[in-house]
Structures
1.
Amino acid sequence: MSRKIFFTVGPTQLYPTVPSHIRTALRESILSISHRGKQFLDIYKNTTDNLRAVLGIPPDYFIFFLASATEAMERVIQNTVQHHSFHFINGAFSKRFYTTAVQLGKNANKTEIPHGSSFDVKSLVIPQETECICVTQNETATGVTFPIEDICYLKQKHKDKLVALDIVSSAPFTKIDFPTADLTFFSVQKGFGLPAGLGVLIVGPKAFAKSKNLHKKGIITGSYHNFLSLEEYARKDQLPETPNVLDIYLLGKVCGDFLDKGMDIIRRETEDKAAAFYDYFDSHPKYKPAVREERFRSKTTIVIDTPGETAKIITYLAKNGFIISSGYGLFKENQIRLANFPSHSIEDAKRLINIVKYMHV
Ligand SMILES: *Cc1c(COP(=O)(O)O)cnc(C)c1O
């Protein structure tokens, strides 16, 4: 069978160096070592050091490892919200963040607009009692991005409130302004091109202090994965539980590869591939980018309207070795979604475009 290339939005194409890192991991018995021993502590330190360099994480921010991004939503709400959270909802993932807060018994407020629309942050009123503002920076379901300058604007206006950012499908491309983001999270099977099963939550001093404060008041902030417990172990380069050692190892290695290549180059390549996709579909007679306004177009998850032809396109591309995502939920049959992560080469992106170009079936 010939090689398949995954332009799916997650899980996705592995970063090209991953197979060789897995072989090294096997050779060095990393799958059998103790998660309390020296070898693991070194792996942990390498991963957190490299991740700090890749994303520009300040030294006073904690890095916590979790099971997934979905878990991170729950941890954020439990550890920073006593009563009131606020949510921007314009797709399935931002909705899940909101639902998590409701399920945890919080008073979750929201501004909800049709899936696929973008927010006008300047005309919006956020209730004074809000403790944490929850933003999905890149809505994977619809390909709408929440510009970083809009997030800075919100923080500027609401200095007293915490800001939590879901960057699952925009990391490591999007440059996070850390003073703005009190909490930031992602999982590794999207932009980092790794096997699924690891979430990362980056917690700033104000968010950590809030969690401590809730804990002191007797509010339940979770058990082994509350921030106090996570911090206690992070200080020792460990986790409370037996973690996904392989994924933590691979994340450190891939971040090392990103740094060797240079984040500027990775970001520039992402811009170039996004431009190639958008330019092509902007002038396509039938298939058009779903997000019309350029400022809100995601560079990393590109969503195209395909009036009723999704199944046809997916089948045709699969025959040619390219696996892509359908639309999400209601858009299943009328959109396709194309990932544009560091694991996707410009050559493969161009080949994919060419196949669509000559698809007259
Ligand atoms: C994929 C995704 C998630 C969920 O990630 P898991 O690792 O499956 O928990 C959350 N938010 C966004 C924006 C996503 O794209």
2.
Amino acid sequence: MGEPRHLNTRAVHAGREDLTDLGLHAVPIDLSTTYPSRDMQGEADRLDLLTTGARDEGMPVYGRVGNPTVNRFEDALASLESCEAAVAFSSGMAALSACLLAVASAGKPHIVAVRPLYGTSDYLLESGLLGVTTSFVKPDEVAAAIRPDTGLVIVESPANPTLNEVDIRQLAKVCGDVPLLVDNTFATPVFQRPKELGAAIVLHSATKFLGGHGDVMAGVIACSEEFARGIRNVRYATGGNLHPLSGYLLLRGLSTLPIRMRAASDTARELAQRMTDHPAISAVYYPGLNPDRPIDQMEGGGSLVSFEVTGDPADVIGGVKLITPAVSLGSVDTLIQNPASISHHIMDADVRQGIGISDKLLRMSVGLEHVDDLWDDLVQTFSGMT
Ligand SMILES: *Cc1c(COP(=O)(O)O)cnc(C)c1O
């Protein structure tokens, strides 16, 4: 029997297929940093192989080269994203950095990126910190911006924090041989699988929905085995590895990902709908809320809702009692933040405002609470505004 067809089933079983034969039910956590061997030549041969970026299939040599618990998470995520391989990192930013270093060191240091992007991703590209230069363009300008030394086209859809969607299928055609990297953190493979739409590389801040409980920091890239070799080699040489305990928690998070995403998405859609009718709210952004939406590539709207209030957004951040006023997203509890002061604060203020991130914008990541409790908590913060 091959892989199960349905994502819900793979979310629970991928990366754990051998457990029954091992006589285990829970995934084993391997905390070793080194792996003893009396076979000197064997170790040298293994290192020669592993440092080409090849995936280690037996015992690793050293924790920075690979870890069996982390490998299981990578296998599971690759399966959910319909990709050949996945490579895990210590954070979403470490994952993006590895991609940039891999293409730049292969002689393609020019990046084409579509805004908005997560604030730190934007900063990493704009600052040139890793030796890349970036052309920021609109989706219909991507073709013209691609040069012979372009290593990646980078896009987020839905984007953080405006929930703007880009037509991935269309963009992938325009990119031709240049790999299209889609940051799929907001949609997750439950609602959108960029590889199936033609993208080459899928990035996740696994800190968010994949972990799902606000207690793991991680990043992961799903891609071809060929691209994976390049970024494994960067990980080996620069050391942005995922800790095995985090690998364990991520696998555990993946098993409930489909039901968490669908439940939170239903609640978020209902809240977005209620907001459109509330006099204290001047704008609501939610994928699919607008019936003339041109693109239909997501199977659900997701759990993020962004909105603007007629009054002071500080009243909302300071006034919520049940909802947690905090940056980040994708947890079982609902979080709210003001992108201009936290998640996108590092960007130039004019650029930020120019791409639709006003100082008043609030971004809410809806969790698993009852919709009425969340609504009551929000509405009591609007009291002075209408
Ligand atoms: C949080 C986030 C990142 C960065 O991930 P970290 O795990 O915080 O390093 C990248 N992209 C998006 C869309 C994010 O929300």
